[in-house]
Design goal:
With 266 residues, the chain is mainly α. Helices cover 75% and strands 2% of the residues.
Length: 266
């Protein structure tokens, strides 16, 4: 039996969602998507490594801003405590940055893997899905970046008086990366809600009726997934997500109205 190791061969067999891929075809398709995603991340890592010093300076800015706001309280230096820590830090930064740079490719590969299971009317959402996902992730990363300064101030305050904070570079980079990832991923929340409404899994009326429970769940999620655990970060995550929930309902209502108008015209 000839196996479709190339995506083009597998795609020619899938004209409608009723056409089924075999398990081997699914695995071959998944392998292709993973390889392309890994290559995209690798290229992104190389780019970040080439501009490592400016990227590191950019990541240090929230900490330096805290030092400027509290003169004499912090040394504003990041320390390396082991001979391999510099290398591991460089690799961590390049990995985080490579994944962010490769995000459009990663999202496209995810979408193309899911596409065979969708109808033609659902496949047309590919470009809006990619663009909105990238924009919202970058928005979440931006919020995390500007939230990091008050978050660090809050965390340092728990050390007590007379304690001077000296940050290990790997721990600081780890917190920075986790903050960006947490905010970026949770800000994809409206994309998921809108997509589920467009494919008919949810209705805007259902979301509107359950808004009270949704707000509670949003604040609980924000409290749990925020890496720093400070109230500033929690509110910076929960409030936009609540707003996104409302916007998702409005978008669903507009889409529902247009769908009914098309059906009436038909």
């Amino acid at each position: 039996m000839k196996l479709p190791f190339r995506h083009g061969e597998a795609n020619t067999k899938l004209k409608t969602p009723e056409d089924r891929m075999t398990l081997v075809e699914h695995l071959a398709e998944l392998r292709t998507r993973i390889i392309r995603s890994v290559l995209a991340v690798g290229i992104g890592m190389i780019i970040i490594l080439a501009f490592y010093d400016p990227v590191l300076e950019f990541m240090r800015e929230p900490y330096e801003q805290l030092c400027r706001d509290n003169p004499g309280k912090l040394k504003c230096e990041l320390y390396s405590l082991g001979p391999l820590e510099g290398l591991s830090t460089r690799l961590s930064i390049s990995t985080y940055g490579g994944m962010i740079l490769a995000m459009p490719v990663l999202l496209w590969q995810i979408w193309r893997f899911v596409v065979p299971a969708l109808h033609a009317k659902e496949k047309k959402y590919a470009i809006p899905f990619i663009i909105s996902s990238v924009v919202l992730f970058l928005l979440g990363a931006t919020v995390a970046y500007f939230t990091l300064t008050p978050a660090l101030d809050f965390l340092i305050s728990w050390s007590g008086e007379g304690v001077q904070a000296n940050f290990q570079v790997s721990k600081y980079i780890s917190l920075f990366g986790l903050m960006v990832a947490a905010f970026g991923i949770t800000f994809e929340f409206p994309v998921l809600l809108v997509f589920l409404q467009l494919v008919g899994v949810l209705t805007p009326q259902t979301l509107a009726r359950q808004w009270r429970y949704a707000v509670v769940v949003i604040f609980v999620i924000a409290a749990v997934v925020t890496p720093s655990g400070d109230p500033y970060s929690m509110m910076a995550m929960a409030l936009p997500m609540t707003l996104f929930y409302i916007i998702s309902i409005l978008i669903g209502l507009v889409a529902q109205k247009r769908k009914r108008a098309r059906e009436a015209a038909a």
